[in-house]
């Protein structure tokens, strides 16, 4: 883990002040909703990491915030991510800003990076971890 990186988890859409506003927000699957909302709506966001899901930018504002880097990660054949509109939303987001990246991994599991599940894909999870640590080294929040 890069020096100075800490993690905060939340299951709410709460926008009350947090002791430190300069954060990188991250969410997995349904947890992408609060992460994406906070990254788009809270001043001082240093980045966003969206895993397995993405919603249209219009859900939380008119555009992705200028200068806020973000990445979306998902499997190219995941019936939820690729089949229910998340991949389309991610592609549209990436096309709308120069600070967004989309990483697709081959396969169909939804929760491919959770080693406690049968859907775990070790190779994809290792690459996702590498990309996450590289992102946090550049944008520690």
Automatic annotation (TrEMBL):
SUPFAM superfamilies: alpha/beta-Hydrolases
Gene3D superfamilies named in the record: alpha/beta hydrolase
Protein name per its UniProtKB record: Dienelactone hydrolase domain-containing protein
Pfam families xref list: DLH (PF01738)
InterPro entries documented for this protein: AB_hydrolase_fold (IPR029058), Dienelactn_hydro (IPR002925)
Domain Dienelactone hydrolase residues, every copy: 22-137
GO molecular function terms listed in the Swiss-Prot or TrEMBL record: hydrolase activity
């Amino acid at each position: 883990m890069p020096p100075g990186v800490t993690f905060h988890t939340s299951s709410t859409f709460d926008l009350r002040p947090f002791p430190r506003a300069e954060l990188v927000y991250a969410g997995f699957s349904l947890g992408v909703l609060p992460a994406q909302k906070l990254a788009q709506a809270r001043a001082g966001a240093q980045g966003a990491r969206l895993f397995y899901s993405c919603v249209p930018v219009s859900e939380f504002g008119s555009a992705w915030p200028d200068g806020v880097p973000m990445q979306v990660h998902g499997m190219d054949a995941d019936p939820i991510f690729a089949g229910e509109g998340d991949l389309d939303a991610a592609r549209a987001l990436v096309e709308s800003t120069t600070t967004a990246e989309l990483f697709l991994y081959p396969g169909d599991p939804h929760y491919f990076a959770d080693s406690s599940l049968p859907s775990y894909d070790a190779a994809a999870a290792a690459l996702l971890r590498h990309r996450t640590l590289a992102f946090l080294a550049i944008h520690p929040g």
